[in-house]
């Protein structure tokens, strides 16, 4: 059994880890990591690795300035942007999104999303549930947490649920966690000191002491180091567990310094001041997050979430849109192009959306206000049929008139792409009652 000498330390459970760290006790789901590794070797067949990347456009993106333009509407409704043709005949989107327009055959637009409750909150986009729905004790889990529970880790050294979003000043925007599933299925946020602590270039007691902080963060899918592991149970799988503990797989995936400069340039350059906000507010348009998301799913994540900029344009809708929407266009197009080039388009689903839309009528501050009756979303990958528009709105983009698509139908589609049937799959809550993932369980038929 490997023992690493060091000073006494205490973890958050107040248990002393005096004199040595016993690697073999690292556990997940009731099994120690060595047991999991041994089981994996005995059953080498793996399911294909399906994943979801969600780009959360917090604040409510203006659907009529991006995906559902109304050039024949009055000026106070149609706004300043013009529609442009895409590479799919008959489909037009905003002039601010030429890259996506040039590869529309790889995307599907939903113009008739309904079911939003109009709150500045990521809850519906993360869980699929509405605030007014009855909820179990502890609350509904986000989709990433549900995947962590249902499918576990693809690679023991990579959390199944990773949140690359910035920490946003408006707390309800921040990506939601595990609900009744508990901290073991929380999203892992690889930022700040956690990232710098994920690579061990030299083993020392100080570095191992700092390493414990990483373990606590990795409670999203691991348990804390066990108190006891008899030396006689040590074997190759226990030694492999040390490799997991000191693995740089995730940090290398998120480290863009080694990425081909041409690939990185395709995604664009980070400009934290693009919105003119204090970077500490957490509303920057960081292009690198798209590339990190792709690399994270390749490393083994099942779901990666990423916020992008802010779209709460009550004023200067068009000035701010001119800054932000072209960056979104570049990042999303680069991500989907990359997925296709790397053969991941059948396995990785991309969803781009926000919590609601914006008012058809422009206000006296040249902005658009909150509008929950209808909004739009963009999907790609996942083996879905593409090059189509689903649903339509009236002449002012204020209501769905054809094929309303509920937000839960989008979730049912994402689960379907992951090989999970929400009509038959349940997760027990804290009281042992089976809870279905969704109330509306049928996926979007046009995408199946």
UniProtKB/TrEMBL annotation:
Coiled coil regions in record: none
Protein name: DUF1501 domain-containing protein
